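Quick board copy: two proteins, each given as sequence then tokens.
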Amino acid sequence: MTDSQDTATVDREQAAGGGPRRTLKVGETRYTLLGTAHVSAESATEVRELIDSGEFDAVAIELCDSRHQNLANPDALGEQDLFQIFRQGKAGMVAASLALGAFQQRVAEQSGIEPGAEMRAALEASQARNLPLLLIDRDVGVTLKRIYHNVPWWQRFSLFSGLLGGVLSRQDVSAADIERLKEGDVLESTFSEFASESETLYTPLISERDRYMVLRLAEQCPPGRYRHVLVVIGAGHLKGMAEHLEQPLPEAPTPERETLEATPPPSKVWKALPWLITALVLTGFAIGFSRNTELGWQLVAEWFLINGVLSGAATLVALAHPLTVIATVFAAPLTSLNPTIGAGFVAAGVELAMRKPKVRDFATLRHDVTEVKGWWRNRVSRTLLVFLTATLGSAAGTWIAGFRIAGALFGG
């Protein structure tokens, strides 16, 4: 992929009302980068017409495996094993995916056009002509994690609370939001207000993905494999990808691509913090008993009361089953002293046992989460809420009870 590269810009399609387009030659392969609008029936039509023209022998699209699966099978998310989701620590990511999907559904209802229609058109048209379909985008979960690690810790809460607040709002999607969707996908449009002013956010959200998608093309299109590849991307990525393709690409693109998929491991401090808290709490109990048996039992009782009540009350917010609430009240004080298991995991497990989701819950999941009350009505999304609220309640209880113990021992 280090051969000389000839670049040509094609303008006639824009003059005819099509999307922006660049055609570049990299070695033996020509790439036509088609900048699409993610909320546009015209873009979907243009994609179909180009693929049906017979000019291309492969199609690359701005999707990762998980989003491709969701597009090809809209019920894929609902078919996952919920218990495994909680066990693997993916509940937060699944909740975020559902929230983004809710935003997308609201846009579809308001505009009459489903965001990503041009990607679906590419999928269907390439299948109809038996053309290879290349998935070149980075996994959305990796992008979210790199965004999380790239922004300063004090900005993370406002960033993701803004994300969830925006996608769960029942207000009409603004014209400005729809215009942003024409340049980027749902994830980009949600963060665009922040990204335009933050290099730390722009880098993992936009520029890294420009480079990543070009590296994926280099991996999947070695010299001689394809003659002409249609690359269907959001218009906001066209300039960046064209610039990367105009420069010599590495002969072995995989190592660089893997660095763009890596997420920084948790710092040793954060990994050690739960064990440190456990040690401090147990030490506090020991000091209390050494001073006075009554004081020791008082500290233990306060730990169980504060942690259990806050965690149980948090699950009430999610309208958890009564047995789930009771189980959380008793489990949270114990799980807070055992970093290998969380109160949310216990709460979600009991909720699944008491209210196992039915077939209709999975069938209506994507529609239900477009309404705030739907998150509580659907058993799948409500179980996610139970997990998240129990986790937050237990964390709050741990810190409040911990400071209470410290105050009782050293407050004079």
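And the next:
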Amino acid sequence: MDKIWDKTKIGNIELPHRLAMAPMTRSRAQEDGTPGELAALYYAQRASLGLLITEGAQPSDDGQGYLMTPGIYTEKHIEGWKKVTSAVHEAGGYIYIQLMHAGRVSHPDNTPHHRQPVAPSAIAPGIETFTATGMQEIPVPRELSKEEIQTTIQDYRKAAAAAIAAGADGVEIHGANGYLINQFIGENSNTRTDEYGGSIENRARFAIEVAKAVVDEIGPERTGFRISPGTPLGGIQDGEQGPELYRYLTKELAKLNLAYLHVMHLGNDELLQDIRSLWTNPLLVNRAGRTIDNISVDIDSGLADLAPVGVWSLANPDFVERLKAGAPLNEADPATFYGGGSKGYTDYPTLKELEHQESK
């Protein structure tokens, strides 16, 4: 694991090692989308991970998919996030706010305006989502007009500016996991016949235009982008052209000189190798199902520059210290992943706290 402790740079920030905190939905924001009272503590506790990528924050009312998720498009949101970014910086960490427009993976009961979800095409994902009254089938979304697509791109731009105003070191554009950008990429979720549908270039167009708008607003050195090739979340199917589309998208994003590309990797190793060869800036690889013993494999082989940590960091605020010491990890409690208060959020003990309790 020697290389994992090497310093590295992301954009214009220097990180102490090759680990990072992966984005994870926690559903503990206030009803208006302002980060919850405990969010600053939660992220600051994990500052030793260096680069913290936050849970997805919606860039607009239309962008909200789940209950109690944070937003980053109003003055209240900005003020709420300032508490989080200040706490992380005081603890020695850096923080990127993830911009996540859920698109069709939503329900009228979950959004501030209670309107029909929006998407590239009027095709339901065929899945259920959690609402205040329990699990409900996601309805057929409304197809975005070309004018609305441009408005949505500007929503990302404004959200990126708001994130920087809130003190974030940068933003990660969420182009993965079945959400809006991924819906434009998906073969079965995008049946448009205009310049945003059909060919590889057209299906990738929205992703590229969002990235360009954000880069134009806050600079490439503060912009990351997340993809999840071949991931069927949200009912998405990439189709036979999927790998080629991601090669094309990677090449186009590389021209923008982004701070990083973040890959949620589920198993197409040949494609991942191709992405690595096409992407010269830092590459983050979140490899599903890896064991703790394999956490540095992609870094050791030169395939990745950083290894983002998800559930392990959720349950272990001092994950870096535990990994260095070869210490056992806290087990995560799935019942507290989404919603609630401090339990399963800010109350996971550190090694020092455990040692103090044992010495009493």
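Board note added afterward: The chain has a mean pLDDT of 97.
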